[in-house]
Amino acid sequence: MTQGKENKKTAKRYPVMLLAAARKELFDLNPANRAEFIAAIETFEKYGPASGIPDVEKIQGDMYELKTQSPSHWLRGFYFHYHESKYIITHIFAKKSNATPVTNKHKGLKRWQDFIAVRQIQNRQCDRSRNQ
């Protein structure tokens, strides 16, 4: 196999980026839960959101929930489609029941809104500097 063919096979079709807060939440999970969620992210990157592998569900607007579980917890990550085929996870958490707490929904949605607001400001600043 040539190097180029290996890269194409291992390329992520649906790359996932974690916000800094979500990355911290991921590494705050116990090792078994963290490994389970990382595996769900890798599966998502390979097959995408429409495959049904792993399980995803619409939360509100453009916010979705990546769902998996470990032997001890339900694991969730809120994400949205950002640009082209890039997806951004805003919030990761473990819970004991299948119901998603409203506070977690609000946290994921708030981080999504904050991310979009910052990007809009950055884009306006870039546009201004190009026009000068």
Brief descriptors of the model:
132 residues, five-stranded mixed beta sheet, disordered N terminus
For the largest beta-sheet, the strand count, sense and barrel status come to:
5 strands, mixed
> Helix content range of the residues, please?
40-55%
Element-by-element helix/strand order = HEHHEEEEH
What's the total helix number? 4
Oligomer: single chain
Mean pLDDT: 87
Number of strands: 5
Strand order of the largest sheet: 1-5-4-3-2
**DSSP strand content:** 25-35%
How large is the radius of gyration?
A: 17 Å
Sum up the overall morphology in one term: globular
Distance between the termini: 50 Å
Q: Which ranges are low-confidence, i.e. pLDDT below 50, for 5 or more consecutive residues?
A: 1-7
Question: What can you tell me about this protein's structure?
Answer:
The protein has a five-stranded mixed β-sheet with strand order 1-5-4-3-2. The termini are far apart. With 132 residues, it is of the alpha+beta class. It is built from four helices and five strands, in the order H-E-H-H-E-E-E-E-H.
Short description:
This protein is an alpha+beta fold and 132 residues long. It has four helices and five strands; from the N terminus they run αβααββββα. A five-stranded mixed sheet has the order 1-5-4-3-2.
Write the layout of secondary structure elements.
Blueprint: H1 3-10, E1 16-18, H2 20-28, H3 31-47, E2 55-60, E3 63-69, E4 74-83, E5 86-95, H4 102-131
Parallel strand pairs: 1-5
Antiparallel strand pairs: 2-3, 3-4, 4-5
